[in-house]
What does this fold into?
Amino acid sequence: MDEVGRIYGDVGLGRFQLSLNRPVERGDYLAVEDELHGPVLCQLDDLRRKSDLDLERAEALVHGADTPIHENLIGIVQIIGYRESGGLVKVPTIPFRPGAKVYQAEEGLIAEVLGLKKHANSGAYVGLLRGHSLRVELDINTLFQRHMSVLSKTGGGKSYLLGVIVEELLRHHVTCVIIDPHGEYGSLRFASDKNGHSERFHVDAQGFASRVLEFSPDPTLNASAKPLTFSLRHLDPRDLLVFMGLTNIKNFLGPLRKLLEEVQAGSPDYTVKDLIRAAERGEGGILDTLHERLEYVDQTRLLAPQGTSLAELVQEGKASIVNLRGVAPDIQELVVARIASTLFESRKKGKIPPLFLVIEEAHNFAPQQGTASCSRVLKTIASEGRKFGLGLCVVTQRAARIDKSVLSQCNTQLILQVTNPLDLKAIAQSIEGLTPGMTEMIQGLPVGTALVTGGGYHTPLFCEVRPRSTRHGGESVRVVPN
Ligand SMILES: Nc1ncnc2c1ncn2[C@@H]1O[C@H](COP(=O)(O)OP(=O)(O)OP(=O)(O)O)[C@@H](O)[C@H]1O
Ligand SMILES: [Mg+2]
It folds into this structure.
């Protein structure tokens, strides 16, 4: 083992200071030999160069004086622990001795304590432990039971990483529904044409053409998608009010029910236009409002006598993309509300297989402030979905703007670069075991490196995201050629 330095000063049970005799990087894994338990895994959380150079001598340096500087490289080290024979990770209960040697940790110890393997293939393989060849694989059952969030600033690599996760879910025959506001996920059909670092990561290019379904409320704009519509006759009058954007149920429910009874008596395959005509025949302020809102619903073209069936939308082992590109925000909310509540109710009754619901740009669908028609059902899924095999994944570039109760239910978090102080605060508040050093490191993460917490791991770890085996649909647009 290579010695990197010695413990000095007061030694705590969770952290200690280290005088370094050779440089190590922040985030590197270190080891200390404990008298009772053998090697204990630690991690460098912060680095500082201490010197005796004061202001006066620094000024003298500026004026050309020759003054000797004594300096030391010191580190703040977080103790992670050792794996005891029962399999649990424990931290020694007696502090290490000052003067004890600190080593660069060997890969075997890192793998054992963090619970990583070189060749496992049981979970969702998202990448390699930063600077190592150990695979970071998320436990798929944990993702379902404890939900997941993917957070970073814009361009941080969220959609790319989520693409990696969906590839893995498809490889494991897990059913997914992806709410895709920018139309980025249809490219999961095609094999990647980039081979970046594939050799190190052992990733082969592979498309999922036969396992990807795509739907859109606006198929004219999204040619690869099938039309997404909802059945008017299967819609509860309360849900129809949601589509109409009417929240005052008390005033409108009765009159709307009457209209529905009237048109249902005429034909079971009635249309929105039939409802509009029935509203025109009546008189009064309430019917005028119903008429106006039904016209609006008609324009959205979301309701049809025969809507997209559940069996068409959700198919076992396939990823269904709900492409909302070009769809107005209020309609997007309605679509998400309707799909999320149908999936939740259908899972409760066991009508569809267990599935993973991914919501991109989730701050728009479950905002912390203001309202969205789909907020309530997403909160319910976040708190109750796990009981029914409905896993939720929220993706957002504004951690501070997403509903806190939703974010706090996401116990697996994949965090890429975040610089906004409010977002960092929201993240720090929602993650256990995040050290001050890690919070600082999140601000400087390069594209393609994520901090992974949860997912079956008891310690947050930095992961180099593996290359995609499919094409990424969210490439940044180049305005001028390179
Ligand atoms: N792991 C990675 N390896 C290589 N390139 C990556 C990786 N992650 C992201 N990129 C590149 O970085 C750019 C931005 O990535 P991505 O579209 O995933 O960002 P985002 O976080 O989803 O942004 P936004 O919030 O704006 O949607 C893309 O051009 C993508 O190809
Ligand atoms: Mg994105």
